[in-house]
Design brief:
The complex is a heterodimer of chains A (328) and B (518). Chain A is mostly helical and 328 residues long. Chain A is built from 14 helices and 6 strands. In chain A, a hairpin with a 4-residue loop joins β1 and β2. The longest helix of chain A is centred in the last third of the chain and has 27 residues. In chain B, 31% of the residues lie in helices and 25% in strands. In chain B, strands 6-7-8-3-9-10 form a 6-stranded mixed β-sheet, with helices on both faces. The chains are: A mainly alpha (328), B alpha/beta (518).
């Protein structure tokens, strides 16, 4: 069926996340005086930045037709690795040397850890043709276990002000995590919309068989997607660790679900091939505004969870209802 | 003239709109007892929509359905089925993981006294049905193991298993072999004798000579004419369908070059499940620039698999050697095949050929994005230039290059696939059932395009199970049967009988081949 002109209905359907966000902002502003202030705005942005990093990676993975349950665990290990090498260095007993790390070195080690684990995910999924759900569930356990081994079950604290800057510092009055999140959004919007890789990503997720028969290196695309997802989880791990000045062995528990929620609320199809980074940004904002607003209204955190759950379901239900006309 | 035959089902003044298009506009038809009413019209004419409304799949915006003279409303297909209306859908509605028998009885499983599914009874009944349909498949076979054509036969068995008074068939022969078509026609005859009213959507006008009684011609959602078929001739029908006279096929300049674009030697593909069995066995073939090589064979003859082997899709199991332009080529993946100048338009456009959710532009450039790569970025201006040129060259009917490809008709989707491959500047074009499910007008256009491409120096290999298509397109015809090459004929030596003879398994040769019309 041809849809030649974009009707108001289409536009509303396409902008539903934005409209939902605006309605929430309006409602919260009316209900709480302290909501609509510059300070609280930056606060919300800072609060969502960790989930934003994870969700950008999750968007790529879900667009490719996959899922990643290990991002929270990768976050924890990456943060712990960065904190550990910064504080203690790495001892190599065989050579009787102790490698000391600078702050940039520790940051690189954290991100590299994420990239490596993500690469492992992608390789297992493509080589052994495992369902991503299973492969990343395995990685979830592996990374959690490695984090415990690395930290001995105790937080690594006292990382210094320089490292702490990326979590707590301000630049031009805006928190560093917000800058980092915004920068990543810009990079990945361009990557998905303007590059060959972005095109291949949508093609692989939209119809893997057709992509293969068209000569795309489907497995390469997938390995890259999981590697990037892991690397972004590494960045998120650095933000969390720097913010708290502490790498917690249990950091990021359940974060994978929040990031999947943000991606889904942002209108990305779980079956792959349809969705955008900007949608995910809106999804993160909706979750952030909801958490923040309910907190300001003194709603119990338990109720916050319940309400968030209904928002996820409603978002996907509305999305489904709007896209139904497509398959007529 | 049996116009007095009683009306079983009447649709009155049916209208239906989808976003952006009036699919049906005040259409009325009558289906009569014991008669086959052919619904004719180009894709998008509204035939399938009308039948989906009759079968309870879609609700009409306005109008009413009368069954035996009393108005009925069906909320869903189940209610329609219980009222005696069965529909064989064009898109297969089967579950790949279930067995053939489970599919046939899905939702109506026979139960034993304990309330469990009576598998034995279900298998017996299915075996009987499959037997009448001459499909040599065990009822316990998982459906996914069957080829598309065989699945279509299972869909027919499913419809037959309900005692329907109205049977709707939406292009039931688009994916099945000539032999199965004969069997199906026999069943149609039987159903008519039993008084079943049949609505039959088809693009193959030649079938109607054999089974049709009445015709309903539709165009752009409107009823153009309804009359007994005896009062219409082919040209009249086609003119009503397309709203214009058919263009004459351009005379074919046989311009085969001397070179060999592709030479395959002893291609063999073992059967994945049956040890010692083969899907393709010792097939040699040569494709020359400027020539169309037709490969004809019944379903299961190994045609699709042969193309897949050439295209590097079975690198781990297949054997044999391939030369491209005289040079040995190691084709172990589609990537390698494309690098050697090969291109494959697969049989199942929607599942294998296109990314339906992407635009015409994104699909058309997908195989050649490397040409528009500027440091990893897509040079959209160059890309648009290429796609616009392809849209024009292949006369792709689309509101714009940014239209989602799902919204195009089958013929135009196929043209997008052709455009995609031509952008890679291939030397050998492999086309698997290039006009399956495509309406008459668009079919002719695809034929013209194929001839143009061949005249421009491409080696084209066309696989088809439609004899008229092979005869119209090919300069040279190769016939396959049970994985082997059984004949190779020049265009002038080939006729319906010789091709069919070679396509039928040796022991069955001659038996059901009669009655095939070209």
């Amino acid at each position: 069926m041809n849809t030649r002109q974009m009707t108001v209905r289409d536009w509303l359907a396409r902008s539903q996340s934005l409209i939902a966000l605006l309605l929430m902002v309006i409602a919260m502003s009316l209900l709480s005086e302290s909501f609509l202030t510059a300070e609280n705005g930056l606060n919300i942005l800072r609060q969502i930045s960790v989930n934003l990093c994870l969700s950008i990676g999750m968007t790529l993975i879900i667009l490719s037709g996959g899922i990643d349950l290990s991002v929270g665990a990768i976050l924890a290990l990456s943060g712990a690795v960065a904190a550990g090498v910064l504080k203690n260095g790495i001892a190599i007993p065989a050579l009787d040397i102790l490698l000391q790390f600078t702050v940039p070195g520790a940051i690189a080690a954290g991100i590299l850890t994420g990239l490596l684990l993500g690469w492992f995910n992608g390789t297992v999924i493509t080589r052994f043709r495992l369902p991503p759900f299973v492969a990343t569930l395995g990685m979830f356990s592996i990374a959690r276990g490695l984090t415990m081994l690395w930290t001995g079950g105790f937080p690594i604290t006292g990382l210094g002000a320089t490292f702490g800057f990326i979590g707590t510092g301000l630049f031009l009055g805006v928190p560093m995590p917000v800058w980092i999140g915004a920068g990543l959004v810009a990079v990945f919007v361009v990557l998905t919309r303007k590059t060959r890789f972005g095109r291949y990503l949508y093609a692989v997720g939209g119809n893997e068989r057709a992509a293969l028969l068209t000569g795309l290196r489907v497995n390469n695309v997938k390995v890259w997607v999981y590697t990037l997802g892991g690397g972004l989880a590494g960045v998120a791990g650095l933000l969390v660790t720097a913010r708290l000045d502490s790498a917690q062995p249990n950091a990021g528990l359940g974060y994978e679900l929040d990031s999947i929620a943000a991606v889904v609320i942002g209108g990305t199809s779980l079956s792959g091939g349809r969705g955008t980074i900007m949608g995910t940004v809106l999804g993160c904002l909706i979750i952030g505004v909801l958490n923040n607003g309910l907190f300001l209204l003194n709603v119990s955190p338990f109720w916050q969870q319940v309400i968030k759950g209904f928002v996820i379901i409603a978002a996907v239900a509305i999305d489904k209802a709007n896209s139904k006309s497509d398959d007529a | 003239m049996t116009a007095s035959a009683e009306a079983v089902l009447e649709a009155r003044g049916i209208s239906k709109a989808f976003p952006g298009v009036q699919a049906l506009d005040d259409v009325s038809i009558v289906l009569r007892r014991g008669r086959l009413t052919a619904l004719l019209g180009e894709n998008g004419a509204g035939k399938s929509t009308l039948m989906n409304i009759v079968a309870g799949v879609l609700p009409p915006d306005s109008g009413e359905i009368l069954l035996d003279g009393s108005p009925r409303q069906f909320a869903n297909p189940r209610e329609a089925r219980e009222a005696g209306i069965a529909m064989i859908h064009q898109e297969l509605n089967l579950v790949a993981n279930l067995t053939v028998a489970e599919n046939v009885f899905l939702g109506r499983e026979p139960l034993n006294r304990l309330g469990f599914v009576d598998v034995a009874r279900m298998h017996r009944a299915t075996a009987k049905l499959l037997d009448t349909l001459d499909l040599p498949v065990s009822p316990g076979t998982p459906l996914g193991r069957l080829r598309v054509g065989q699945q279509q036969v299972v869909e027919i068995a499913k419809a037959l298993s309900t005692d329907a008074r109205v049977m709707i068939m939406d292009e039931p022969t688009s994916a099945i072999t000539e032999h199965e078509i004969e069997v199906l026609f026999g069943i149609v005859d039987k159903l008519k004798q039993q008084g079943v009213a049949i609505a039959y959507i088809t693009h193959k006008l030649e079938e109607l000579v054999r089974i049709g009684d009445d015709a309903v011609v539709m165009r752009d959602g409107k009823l153009i004419d309804a009359a007994p078929l005896a009062n219409l001739d082919r040209e009249q029908i086609v003119r009503m369908m397309v709203g214009r006279a058919m263009p004459e096929r351009p005379p074919r300049a046989a311009a085969a070059g001397d070179g060999e674009a592709l030479r395959a030697t002893k291609l063999t593909l073992p059967h994945p499940d049956r040890p010692g069995g083969f899907l393709v066995k010792d097939v040699d073939l040569v494709a020359r620039p400027g020539e169309v090589l037709g490969i004809f064979g019944l379903m299961g003859a190994g045609r699709t698999e042969l193309l897949e082997v050439i295209f590097g899709l079975h690198a781990k199991t297949a054997s044999g050697s391939i030369r491209v332009d005289g040079e040995p080529a190691n084709i172990d993946s589609p990537v390698a095949a494309i690098a050697h100048g090969l291109a494959l338009a697969p049989e199942d456009r929607k599942r294998e050929g296109l990314v339906l959710g992407l635009s015409v532009r994104e699909n058309a450039s997908l195989a050649s994005l490397n040409r528009f790569d500027r440091a990893g970025f897509v040079d959209e201006r160059a890309e648009r230039g290429m796609v616009d040129a392809a849209v024009e060259r292949f006369r792709i009917k689309t509101p714009s290059a940014d239209e989602i490809v799902r919204n195009l008709s089958g013929g135009n989707q196929q043209k997008v696939i052709l455009g995609k491959w031509l952008a890679t500047q291939p030397r050998v074009l492999l086309l698997d059932e290039p006009t399956r499910g495509i309406d008459v007008g668009a079919k002719e256009e695809i034929y013209t395009l194929i001839h143009e491409l061949s005249a421009a120096g491409l080696a084209v290999i066309v696989v088809s199970s439609e004899l008229p298509e092979i005869l119209a397109l090919a300069d040279r015809i190769m016939v396959m049967c049970e994985g082997r090459k059984t004949a190779e004929l020049g265009r002038d030596d080939a006729d319906v009988e010789s091709l069919m003879q070679a396509a039928l398994p040796a022991q069955a040769a001659g038996a059901p081949a009669a009655g095939v019309n070209a």
